[in-house]
Backbone:
């Protein structure tokens, strides 16, 4: 299946937290969007890997994803090395997206920055024909490099290269995040309290979306980072 946009996430719920409004918007426009989670989030203090698998499936239905897979890398300890790069670039070659979106280049959780570097290098390597890879059925994959790579913004404030207005899709964003019920604010939960399970964090998510939206004159927005300048045909395209 060819996708229009392929999103990589170090943990299940990374993509939902950072760019699910954009995903919902793209799907509403008829685009095919998929997520590849690198790990199952098994080191999380709340819930379990099996439960997060179920939550990811529920979120995928809410967002209308065309595909979602999990590479089952070791949470907290995966590396940016040849083995992991090959696994990532095989997914790029499998889905042949026009755009790849990955984790924030720098963030509170060390997995996020490491995942960003891994995805960026794999993005480049996927276009080298002398790197031979094979799909699940043993068929040789063709070299393929998507047109662009972007990065979503996570916990740390990073200056966006562009912001997507997600105002009509903010409710879908919240619903996709709430699908990961084990991880976030629930006053009745008996699970250990964590940084992301507090009400303050939930309020932060709204504040971040409002701030990004405010930058572009919208109610809610999601910011993204580009390694290179973005080409436009005319300044009038930005009106």
Residues:
């Amino acid at each position: 299946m060819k996708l229009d946009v392929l999103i990589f996430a170090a943990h299940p719920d990374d993509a939902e937290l950072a760019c699910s409004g954009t995903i919902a918007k793209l799907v509403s426009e008829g685009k095919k969007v998929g997520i590849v989670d690198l790990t199952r989030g098994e080191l999380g203090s709340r819930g379990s890997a099996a439960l997060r698998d179920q939550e990811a499936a529920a979120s995928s239905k809410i967002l209308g994803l065309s595909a979602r897979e999990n590479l089952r890398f070791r949470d907290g300890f995966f590396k940016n090395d040849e083995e992991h790069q090959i696994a990532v670039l095989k997914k790029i070659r499998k889905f042949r997206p026009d755009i790849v979106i990955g984790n924030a280049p720098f963030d509170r959780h060390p997995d996020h920055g490491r995942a960003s570097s891994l995805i960026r290098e794999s993005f480049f390597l996927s276009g080298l024909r002398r790197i031979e890879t094979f799909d699940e059925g043993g068929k040789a994959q063709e070299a393929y490099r998507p047109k662009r790579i972007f990065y979503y913004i996570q916990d740390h404030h990073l200056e966006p290269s562009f912001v997507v207005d997600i105002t009509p899709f903010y409710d879908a964003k919240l619903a996709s995040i709430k699908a990961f019920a084990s991880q976030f604010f629930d006053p009745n939960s008996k699970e250990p309290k964590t940084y992301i399970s507090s009400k303050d964090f939930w309020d932060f998510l709204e504040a971040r979306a409002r701030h990004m939206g405010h930058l572009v004159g919208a109610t809610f927005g999601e910011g993204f980072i580009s390694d290179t300048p973005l080409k436009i045909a005319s300044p009038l395209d930005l009106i």
In short: The longest helix spans residues 199-215. Helices lie at 14-28, 49-63, 82-95, 110-125, 170-178, 199-215. The CA atoms of residues 184 and 197 lie 4 Å apart.
